[in-house]
Specification:
With about 150 residues, this protein is mainly beta. About 5% of the residues lie in helices and about 45% in strands. Strand 5 and strand 6 form a beta hairpin. The longest helix is centred in the N-terminal third of the chain and has 4 residues. The termini are far apart.
Length: about 150
């Protein structure tokens, strides 16, 4: 019997400052709450602000890490917005991913292309409360490049 182990150090690329492959120059991080049966649309081009208060416009996403609070009674659903969805992350306009309470989703795209964001036409990432009755909370980190 073999036991396989995966070291995150080996699996995760080290990003340096810049806009090329394995580089990033934009960061968004937040703890967010979605009311029961509601949505939270994140506009990745020109609305979110970085930790220093500067408005962010992502052209490419290198990493997204989402952690659903363990205390959530409902699931957290990630997908594209109803209008102007970011289609490069999930491969279309309607696919979604379900993040269970206490679950973590990590997407990495260190290559030069990453997940492309197009301002005004493909820049909305939607998070939905998967149930009624209670709110859900999640932490999110988005790392990307301006070009």
């Amino acid at each position: 019997t073999e036991i396989y182990t995966l070291s995150l150090h080996d699996a995760l690329p080290i990003l340096s400052s810049g806009v090329g492959a394995s580089q990033a120059d934009k960061l968004f991080t937040d703890t967010r709450t979605i009311n029961a049966s509601a949505n939270d649309d994140l506009d990745l081009a020109g609305v979110l602000v970085d930790p220093l208060g500067a408005t962010l416009t992502f052209a490419r996403i290198r990493a997204i890490i989402v952690a659903a609070a363990a205390a959530n009674a409902n699931t957290l659903i990630m997908g594209g917005g109803a209008s102007n969805p970011v289609t490069t992350i999930l491969g279309g306009t309607t696919p979604t991913l379900t993040i269970r309470p206490g679950g973590i989703l990590a997407l990495l795209a260190p290559d030069a292309t990453g997940y492309v964001v197009t301002a005004a036409t493909a820049d909305i990432l939607r998070f939905t409360n998967g149930g009624a009755g209670t709110s859900v909370q999640y932490d999110i980190i988005i790392v990307g490049a301006s070009a």
